[in-house]
Design a protein that fits this description.
alpha/beta, Rossmann fold, 2 domains, seven-stranded parallel sheet, six-stranded parallel sheet, 13 strands, globular, disordered N terminus
């Protein structure tokens, strides 16, 4: 996510569940820039990624073992009001990660949860932490996430689950003025949710004193490390009392994440939820275009009504903005998300896409991290991804859960 350019100084007043937001720290998270299309300034590094090797026009429905949970939400010893809230939103049976990890967190264990997005992992750590906070009102939880969007989504889920409880939270992310966020931190907070760079800034400024933190949640830890947050994470954890509980969630485990677990968790219990192989379960194809008809090829594709909710990935901020405007000019309702947009602008764009007011969301890779929208019918790689990991991340926006999805990648005809 790029450093913002338009600082928004407006903020929502903080209530018993009001959150405050601060601007994102300066951080360059881009790797080698992907392929560009016409009109870009400066030289860009062309990707070596070849999407044609992943053409899969007939994905096989994988047979996933049916998981039989050992508990219902009423079996965990959760507050009756919390169980009632879950029932009112249609939840009675835990997902696999919830079923296995909630009892461990309630017991005070450090845990490693290996699970991708869409498995219910947010509620898997929020529910037991809410329960523990109800019993011990002085508790304070710090949740670290890779992106502002994910931080906000976590707080939204927290609000939903704690409706009627007097629990306070502050979100510390980029895109808005830092002052209201500092003001929010001066009050009692049960949950502080933020990105590592911003949390580090607040600690350095002595606006966030971590001595009261009893639990740390590292959510999507692998992505935080990919984005270069290893040193801020270590610096933050070093300031928090060692008696804390540490909850670690990641979709993958490599040497960097294993080292982080080894350095900062105490005898952790690992719970792994098997995920489907995204490149096998999503229909994938390439779309050939010529030098002068790339946009026309796209609009022709979008004339098919089966492309009902589409995320289009572009390589650069200004090209993403330009493409979105072009689509709107051609009668295709579109919104864009990229690093030059302020936080409120990004949230409005995402809300319009989620509600169906916009059929298309055009996004850069970094801006799209942490965005999870249900029922995305298609992902279109309008500009090539730079790496296989970027490709997997992009196409994973569709075909979530048991839904079908399709990914199309534009490839220049020689």
């Amino acid at each position: 996510m790029q450093t913002h350019r338009n600082r928004d100084t407006r903020h929502t007043p903080r209530s018993a569940h009001g959150s405050t937001h601060g601007r994102r720290p300066h951080r360059n998270t881009r790797r080698n820039a992907p392929h560009r299309h016409g009109g870009q300034r400066g030289k860009r590094v062309l990707p070596t990624f070849d999407p044609s090797q992943f053409i899969n026009r007939n994905p096989v429905d994988q047979v996933v073992e049916t998981y039989t949970p050992k508990h219902r939400f009423g079996d965990f010893g959760l507050d009756k009001r919390l169980v009632h809230t879950l029932s009112t939103i249609g939840l009675s049976t835990p997902s696999p990660i919830q079923d296995q990890i909630i009892p461990l967190i309630l017991d005070g264990k450090d845990v490693v949860g290996l699970a991708e997005t869409g498995t219910g992992k947010t509620a898997a750590f929020l529910l037991p932490l809410i329960q523990k906070t109800l019993k011990q009102y002085g508790r304070q939880t710090l949740v670290l996430t890779p992106t502002r969007e994910l931080a906000i989504q976590i707080e939204q889920e927290l609000k939903k689950l704690t409706k009627g409880f007097k629990m306070y939270s502050t979100v510390c992310v980029g895109g808005t003025n830092i002052r209201p966020q500092i003001h929010g931190l001066r009050r009692k907070n049960h949950f502080i949710i933020g990105t590592p760079g911003r949390i580090t800034d607040l600690i350095d400024r002595k606006d966030f004193k971590t001595g009261a933190v009893t639990t740390v949640v590292l959510d999507e830890a692998d992505r935080m490390l990919d984005m270069g947050f290893i040193h801020p994470i270590k610096a933050i954890l070093a300031t928090i009392p060692k008696e804390r509980e540490t909850l670690f969630f990641s979709a993958t485990m490599d040497k960097k994440t294993e080292q982080l677990v080894g350095d900062f968790l105490r005898e952790p219990v690992t719970v792994s939820v098997k995920k489907k192989e995204v490149t096998n379960s999503i229909k994938q194809d390439v779309v050939r275009y010529g030098h002068h008809n790339k946009f026309e090829t796209l609009t022709s594709l979008l004339s098919n009504e089966s492309l009902s909710r589409v995320i289009i990935f572009g390589s650069m901020k200004h090209s993403v903005e330009k493409l979105s405007k072009q689509l709107n000019t051609h009668g295709i309702t579109s919104e864009s998300i990229h690093g030059n947009k302020s936080h409120p602008q990004r949230q409005r764009a995402l809300a319009r896409f989620q509600s169906g007011q916009a059929r298309v969301l055009v996004a850069t890779d970094v801006a799209a991290r942490g965005i999870h929208v249900d029922n995305v019918s298609h992902v279109i790689n309008y500009d090539l991804p730079n790496t296989f990991e970027d490709y997997v991340h992009r196409i994973g926006r569709t075909g979530r859960g048991n839904k079908k999805g399709e990914a199309l990648t534009f490839v220049l005809t020689n």
